Amino acid sequence: MESEQRLKRKRIYRPYSRAQFLSRRSLILCLSFFVFLMFLSSERFPIRTVSFHPVVSVPSLSILSKNSLQDSFHAKLRFPLSVEDRVLFPDHLLLLVSDKIDEAEKLDCVYHKVLNHKDVVRQRVLSVDEFDGFRSVVRCPLPPWNYSAAAGLMWRGHGVDYSLSLRSNRTVHSWDRLVYEAAFDGKTAVVFAKGLNLRPHKESDPNRFMCQFGLKNSDEEDEGFVVMTEAIVAAQEVVRCSLPSSIRNNPDLAQGIRVTVVLASRNDVEHVRMPSAFRFRNSRSYDHRRNRMRQKENIAIPSVAKLYNSKSYQTKRNDGKFELCACTMLWNQAPALREWIMYHTWLGVERWFIYDNNSDDGIQDVIEELDFQDYNVSRHTWPWIKTQEAGFSHCALRARNECKWVGFFDVDEFYYFPRHHRRGLPGQNLLRSLVANYSSSRTIAEIRTACHSFGPSGLSSPPLQGVTVGYTCRLQSPERHKSIVRPALLNETLLNVVHHFQLKKGFRYLNVPESSIIINHYKYQVWKTFRAKFFRRVATYVVDWQENQNQGSKDRAPGLGTEAIEPPNWRKQFCEVWDTGLRDFVLANLADPATGSLPWEKSLL
């Protein structure tokens, strides 16, 4: 009897004892983890959240100082990089990473074989840039044959499992069809997308589109919290949608929300108008509440775009707007920046927005030097190839709260005032004075200036004193024009054709006479400089030089084929009129009286 009671007690109290043991063990583990976190966040060990490899090497027979111990600790302790998205371009693979990356030269791109994930190859990254203030872009070489484009990242010399960078997302997006950028604009969101197949230079029907806002990765089956709103306007690669009220009322809570464009079915457009906004917790519950067929027909474009409430874009300057700013998009034109910026600053440009389209020629060093000399230049990483029109739309949004006027022109284009030069009048701040005359106009919102195209002018090597002094022979008739606009008065589509924008109703452009102001476009430079155009053009609707299309277009060199082969007598071509006006203007106003040197020459010393 006593033994039976003893067995009952064992059966009764054994589970309780085990539960009690587990409870104590869990408590100990939680406390240990908390102490570990406190250790990591302590001021004594300030750790960068780049990658994680906790190895501390302490040399024997030596005593390390506190600083050297910290340096050693920082060098070895790396957190794994989180690859959020991948975009496959024709010439490289772009990775979007949710970390700031230091020491990019120590980072490798890692590819696994399609049918064998243990078989991996490593290649050095092409370049790394900070992106949108919250993420980084890593450019990797294209994957080797039979290796997946779902690349990861690994620190060189560290044995961290690169698969850590693949855990969040293994999707590889095609550049042909992708939502790539998004920005707040008041009570709306402006979304930029490839693959909409909208007519160039024309407005499109916004009823064909909706915008979808959601906290989710693009490869997750459960879409999480999602909000959809109607499109207000659409043109080229830009769709503007109203913001959901929850985001509109609390924009700071919307940091990092992914946004995409949904192509509405014709049935939606013609028969069923969507409410201004509706929410659902996940796609399955939405399917039950809405028509299944319509959900299948509504196609969401893959997206890497996220909304960030960047105060630098939204807040107006406290001391008033700049009268005149300039924006351009470029690729590998760092050597041309000094002359272009210094000259136009002398003419009155106060603020510069440089949209860098994947340069690898040391442009950041040039911009930092110019900014150090108080030229007020900022570089914006724009990794999206052949999207110049969209980039200019984005820049117009960005500059609107800082600038009354923004000029959109290239680094080989220079404004010149021939009438002032002939009369011997002062030239400094002429361009700013010109636009300031129309800053209060109730009708003028854009000033257009014709361009004269200059040729190599008999030269075989780049001119030492710059293009304004070296190239002096041009074509007789002007080609195209460039514009300076009031960004607050642009049409809400932000529609542009690079050379000019569509304006709000009631406003018009002004053509200034060539006798007063002209742009010298140094379009056909010496062959060494010109042949770089064969690699890629930045404009969306301009055919690349290698493609056998639009041979007669003004965007191409007359008589030039599709291969980067120097034609006979290139240095003598495109020369119909000798024009030394801007050269003389520059030497008279900007050359050092004692040495004859120009400001951009000094910066090269």
From TrEMBL:
From the record, give the transmembrane residue ranges. 21-40
**Cellular component terms, GO, for this chain's entry?**
cytoplasm; membrane
Q: Where does this one sit in the cell?
A: Membrane
* Major site of localization recorded for this protein: membrane
Which membrane topology describes this protein? Single-pass membrane protein
Q: Which UniProt keywords apply?
A: Glycosyltransferase, Membrane, Transferase, Transmembrane, Transmembrane helix
One Pfam family of this chain: Glyco_transf_92
Q: Does the keyword Membrane apply?
A: yes
- What GO terms are given for molecular function? glycosyltransferase activity
What PANTHER family does the database record attribute to this sequence? GLYCOSYLTRANSFERASE FAMILY 92 PROTEIN, GLYCOSYLTRANSFERASE FAMILY 92 PROTEIN RCOM_0530710
Concerning its family, UniProt says: Belongs to the glycosyltransferase 92 family.
What is this protein's record name? Glycosyltransferase family 92 protein
Q: Which organism encodes this protein?
A: Gossypium lobatum
